[in-house]
Specification:
mainly alpha; rod-shaped; coiled coil; 5 helices; 0% strand
């Protein structure tokens, strides 16, 4: 039996799984009752289905479930054929007539009420089991595709905060260095100016003394 959960989920996100491929099964040849007035073929849809997420993409899911039930369909007439026939007779306004006519057409092929009900229960159980598998698969996908991504995002946010703090610290250090540079430049410039002034003054004094020595001392 096909895994409903993994098949649906894998259509939207990549799910890590490596199941063994099932051997292809030969399609069972079945006789299908055809009403006197042929109606367009209808896809299998449980009559009690109600979904708040209905959208224009429902045809895709309808085709998916059609294939799922075809693959799970057992040989001989059962609930699957019965459901398809009742849907094919939607033009018949009387519901009881549709159900009775479909059952009458399949009963000649060996379908009785007990088998109809038991196979309907089997399909329902298949959905229940696969729904559980689907929820488990959803949990795995959420962990891999959502929660893990959120964790990575939070990690990046923390890293950004850390880098922001480092940048702020470096910027403050830059401002401190700029202040120290200006202060040191001013000190060096002042010392250089003072040195040159005193140096020139001493040179002038020595030169004057040299002239006076030459003049006054014989």
């Amino acid at each position: 039996m096909a895994n409903l959960g993994k098949k649906i989920l894998s259509a939207f996100v990549e799910v890590n799984d490596d199941p063994k491929k099932e051997a292809e099964k030969p399609a069972a040849t079945k006789q299908v009752y055809t009403p006197a007035t042929p109606q367009p073929a209808a896809t299998f849809t449980p009559t009690t289905a109600s979904n708040s997420y209905a959208s224009t993409g429902n045809s895709k899911f309808a085709a998916y479930f059609e294939k799922l039930f075809e693959e799970a369909n057992i040989p001989g007439p059962d609930y699957f054929e019965f459901s398809k026939m009742t849907e094919a007779m939607q033009a018949v306004p009387d519901e009881q007539v549709r159900y009775s006519t479909a059952f009458a057409g399949l009963s000649v092929q060996g379908l009785d009420k007990q088998k109809l009900l038991s196979t309907a229960a089997q399909y329902l159980q298949m959905l229940e089991t696969d729904a559980t598998n689907f929820q488990n698969t959803v949990g795995t996908a959420l962990q891999e595709k959502v929660h893990e991504k959120k964790r990575q995002m939070e990690e990046k946010a923390q890293r950004i905060q850390q880098l922001t703090q480092e940048i702020s610290t470096l910027q403050n250090e830059q401002l401190t260095l700029q202040s120290e540079i200006k202060e040191n430049e001013a000190k060096i410039e002042a010392n250089t100016g003072g040195y040159k002034y005193e140096s020139e003054a001493m040179k002038s004094r020595i030169n004057r003394d040299i002239e006076k020595i030459k003049r006054y001392i014989q």
